[in-house]
């Protein structure tokens, strides 16, 4: 596995680098089979294929799959706007579920876009659709921007 100084890369550079890496390192993306389909400043498209392991007790895709896909797409959209050495964490995620998804439904796609990126917080919105373009869920998020602490005054 290639090592890289994450603090020397902007959020967009880091995500573009990560998208090109082998999928052999443990991550939520690998676990769920997520792929980056598009990466631009303030906009990220992620997708995954449904499968029987995603089933809830009713036999449809668990809502947590759509929530995780949205959390990832919205958070990454925020990350694409951040300078080198600055990170983020999700403070709040609000998901609205529109319809159920079968475990054999195929590809789900999440598009996340930033709404506002400030010094301390950022907001983003996104949608998950199925292969036919039908809306599955939509969400908004608030993220806290994690800036390095300033050192002692010289």
TrEMBL record:
It comes from the Bacteria. The keyword Hydrolase applies. Keywords: Hydrolase. Residues 59-136 form the Thioesterase domain. The keyword Hydrolase applies. InterPro entries: HotDog_dom_sf, PAAI_dom, Thioestr_dom. This is Thioesterase domain-containing protein.
